[in-house]
What does this fold into?
Amino acid sequence: MTPDVLVAHDVTVAYGARTVLQVSHLGVRAGEVLTIVGPNGAGKSTLLRVLALLEAPTRGTLTFGGAVVEYRPARLLALRRRMSSVFQAPLLCDTTVFGNVALGLRFRHLPAREIERRVQPWLERFGIAHMAGRAANTLSGGEAQRTSLARAFVLEPEVLFLDEPFGALDAPTREGLLLDLASVLREAAVTTIFVTHDRGEALLLGDRVAVVMGGRVIQVDEPDRVFSSPATEEVARFVGADTIVAGEVRERHGELCVVAVGNGQIEVQNDAVPGERLLLCVRPETVALAPAGAPSVQSSVRNSLLGKIKRIVPLDVIVRVDIDAGFELRAYISKQSWHESRLSEGEEVRASFKTTAVHVIRRQAPHEPR
Amino acid sequence: MELIWQGIVQAFWLILRGDPEVMRIMWLSLSVSGIATLLSLVLGIPIGTAIGLTRFPGRSLVLSLVNTGMGLPPVVVGLFVSIFLWRSGPLGFLRLLYTPSAIVIAQFILAFPVVTGLTVAAMQQIDPRLRMQLQGLGASRLQVLRQLLWEARLAMLAAVMGGFGAVISEIGASMMVGGNILGYTRVLTTATVLETAKGNFDVAIALSVILLAITFLINWGLTELQQLGARR
It folds into this structure.
């Protein structure tokens, strides 16, 4: 396993009596892109500022490159010069595009020729070489953010911090820049902390995802794992498991638990003991629907619940169907199959999904962020 | 009407002829107000920058004092500077009363809050997040400060204009601490008052025109500089 370049240990940030961040342990591995996701106000940006040494934690220690960070101006400056950051607003200075990209190199007192040599490739990489001489205050939002990104990458930092860099951009601009950034990050292989509230960005860019909620790091995992096995109910809701239902284990047969929920039961794969309370998450796209009278589906689908359609909401290319099965069960079906099945509100349906499609959150088991 | 016209003609004569007395008055006005403005910049810009960029207890009180100072009545300043410089006053031993230096002191006191207040405003219009961004790019404290001053440079020209404008046109303080002594402490404004009182309207108008012209030319130059920077 690659060593952690940057580690936060028992870090707390409090403003007066209000604790906004409390992280027992978070390690950033060399070369990885760690995305920090979470809802607005969760403490993501505070975490980024602490990791980027732009804010001293109220308590706790940071280790960078194996050494404990000392909060003395001269030491901090030396450490910060091994990092760089991009924020949501481009925050360009009142000079040209070139001048902005060169800024950090000037701070490091590099000779003009060296600056020129290093800036040029990054202007090209972000597609802004043709506007190198333009004044920064004449740029569009996308151009400005490209300049800001080039300004951070040109420093060839050991750790790069990106705080919602696409947050202020319109969708098409964002798309283009996101793909460019994804390929730059792959090529540069620079250790990156990427803060976003957008799950798609986290999934696309992150080697690992850290979910931050209420000032705590709830889960750190590979993107697939966070999305398929959220650690808590909050994470599940945030990553988009729309159906979350509480139930109690009735029986267990080997790996299979029978859990009583609402007015029916769901079988899941888990080693919970009878009597244990569980939270079950069912991602809507794993639920199949059929009219209640239709013959039962193939045997590998162990869960089959009868319910009444409460709502049908046609979305983009899919249709959201909310079913009352003693609890609210949500299903996404394609527009095609909606038209074919002719489902309508108030109708009885059979909803089925595999035992493996159900993610289980054990309520008693501790979910200490590790 | 005739009077104003005569005055303007007379003004041009006085300037074109290079009337030694008028030239001396003009030069004294420019240098006294110039030095006072310069001193207020030297002190007001760092202090204004510090107030603008930091947070400390009592900051808003300090800011209120500065803002009050921006509207300080020249006669009040003249009064207190006179008391201090009076022969028996606390600074009487300096023997500065009724000298050009006394005018510089009084005008400095008038210009300093103006420069400080406008510098605070200039620094506050910078995006506060820029400081963190600069630190994030590896700027030292000094480099952050230098960059922020660069960002505020256009707004700061307003501080220069405001400071100079406040003192070149004031009269109360100059009269009280300078004494309007011919050939020594007589400046454009005090001379204008005197000539008006004597009924020499043409000379008074001439002096006023010169005063207006100086103020205009200096502000025009600074404005051009500012707009040049803004267009870039």
